[in-house]
Amino acid sequence: MLGFADLARVGLLALLLPLLSTALVVLFRPQVDVELIQHQAALETGVSGAVSVQVRCRTRACPDLQLQVPASAGLDVTAPGRSPHSGPLSLWLPKLGRGQLTRVGMEIRAQRRGRHRIGPLRLVLGDPFALVTVSLLSASDYEVIARAPIHPLEHDRPGAVSIEGDGNPIFAVGSPGLPDIAIRSYRIGDDLRRVHWPVTAHRGQLMVRQDSHPRSNHSALLVGPCLQAGADGRCHSLDWAVEAMGSVAVHLDAVGHELTLVADAGRDSSVVTSHHPLAQILDELAVLEPQPSKSSQAEASSATRGRRTSSGIPDRFAAQARTAIGGSTCVVLACSSNDQAAAGSLLALLPPGRTGLVFVLDQEAFTGSGPSAAAEEITQLARCAGWSSVHITPEMSVAQAWWRLQAREPARRP
Q: Which candidate, 113, 122, 103, places its Cα nearest to that of 51?
């Protein structure tokens, strides 16, 4: 209309270019396979782990793609050599031909223990004019479990509380026509006439005969159900208990114990019971959640009435704990001081002749209110019930608590 034909052609091209770019991106969109690979079997809180994203082009050639890796709160995903930043990680992938693949390495670090998620992974495809972008999402997200830190613990020392129950043997020697004779390490007070000199010479330490059939050591790990969350939704006493029980599990597994875990998962009073290997027990400990706060429990008391015993312990938890303790020679318990009746009920489950170790967590001290008399009363009650107990405060380390727990002899039953 104005007589500028060249300007009209440029304007028409500018109007048609977005439509043309959209058609090109949609019609020639490649098909790709995306997979996230975790290189470590387990991720520990505060320690960097390595993961990689593998992208394979299945059809036509892939242009430049932008990879976006979102993660849940509490999990940092960064490229190697880069500092953490807010928002999902974005990386550019090289061009891929048909059937080619590329792998991009990344670092992940969990700020706290628990269950974290990465994804769904997003591939962003654009046209050369940067007018149209299409997002390709992975089919699902990926779960990453961050375990609590593991602290090295000392082995049994002379005079310490034994974790071998009633003295299970190391191995047995069978002789034709004779009953099975078990061989174990010499202990102070053993009769020297029972020293087995050939085995002593072979092992380089005193070994004695024991006329009993060998039996495998079995330990029960119990995490009490009375560890409640604070106003911020976190429970520092439960975090300490998870670190301690995980360290004890690694220690007992190293000395040949079979492990059973009984813990309240904190969701609808469900109970986690594990007879699995050490790795699965550590994963189950890592995802434990605290009980709701006292105000939330008061609101839900009518809904949960009938599911708990008179002491406040869930019926199912008490039954599972009783079964696990009955088949174990060593019992390790972590209980809280905020419910003395529940703690007393758990302490009463230890049968005579079993080794019992208990961490009494001072709930008031962990919330900043200072040491409580209730925790010390439960500690003394545990010793009278045959347990070796220690009063836990926030400044006490796991290794220090284990050292005190072994060095302290339990009070004898009346």
A: 103
